[in-house]
Write a structure and sequence with these properties.
The chain is α+β, with helices and mostly antiparallel strands. It is 31% helix and 21% strand. The chain is built from nine helices and 17 strands. A hairpin with a 3-residue loop joins strand 5 and strand 6. Helix 2 packs antiparallel against helix 3.
Length: 415
Amino acid sequence: MTTERRYIWQKVASFFSPSNRLQRYQLYANDNYLQLPVEIISPLSKNTIACESGPDVGLVDIARHQKKGILKVNKSIKVAGQYDWQIPNDEFACGLSTSLYDRNPFTGELNGEPIADCFGICAQENNAILMIADGVNWGYKARLAARCAIHGAMTCLNQDLFDKKLSTTRDVFERIRAAIEAAQQLIFKSEGSLTTLTMSIICPSNRCWLVCSAIVGDSNAYVYSRKQRAVFELTQGSRDLNNERDMRSPGGALGTTMDEKADLANLTYSLMEVDQGDFVFLTTDGISDNFDPCVSGIAASVKTPLLARKSSNTISTTPPVLMTAYERHLSSLNQMQLSIASNGEQMNARELCNRLMKYVLRLTDELRQTIEQGVRENEETEGSDRSKFELKMRNKVGKIPGKLDHASIVAYQVR
């Protein structure tokens, strides 16, 4: 065999062979999973030791006509591969959802109800499936889309991830791609609207742990390393980190578009090697966007320096730090790390969820109070005066740190 032909053969062989060259915490991302490194994985256990879906009953309720209240669940029937979706484990597998929106001071009702997020986690003895979805806009159709996405994808993975023999990460990504399609089909069949969908599967290998992820939309996935004292994003390959992101647009979505096809404009697959003891966690943008320094008031964008947010409790007259899009990304990860590690390193999955949620609740508290106070003081305002009040209120809240949204997180500690 000539040197040239041998070189070509080696290139072809290496494309189909395990790489064995992954660097821990380095992200490998592509819109085509066939372009990612291929790693051998160990056999996946199918013995479930913890699982949860929420908020409320989560993926269990995919009735076409969503209603108020919590569905009474029949636990004698398997749903998405499990009999009971309320078996979290605070140590290593759990999730959390809440609303950051203001409450009507007269009726006590929360704006933006119902919570249109949905999360799911299914942990086995040596692997785990994590998912999160954020229904686009408000309403029961948005919630239905998110629940159907988690239900459809989880059903697919709980069936195909363990009943068929998998030997490499490429096999895992094939199942992830099928799960995305299953999610889309169920949303369309159930007449849901639009939703994001992000999933991560933690797999063992002979020498490490691997996280295979996929994202459609803007619900991000992360890894927190206690040893490195750092947060790494698993889904950053889905956007250009050097350009400002429009937080009003998810970038992609599953569900009812002009036809039966999903908007997979930013569909991205990623692979990362992590360490035992690390935490993998997925969030909706109600969590992640509030860690952006321009949203939290720590900084302002170099492109729009005059739109800096500032708390009314701040007495400093020092101009805000100006940051580029990439600097904002790094600052977000750093603030997440500080929030997670603020009370020391003795932490479990539940505590990680609580610490991140506590940060966004505290950050958005002034926003809620400002809106609720304005509503109380202007209850009788009508006509043109009402329009003036609403315009004044929009301008006022736009300058206060924080973003009101539904906020959800699901976390798993690699073990």
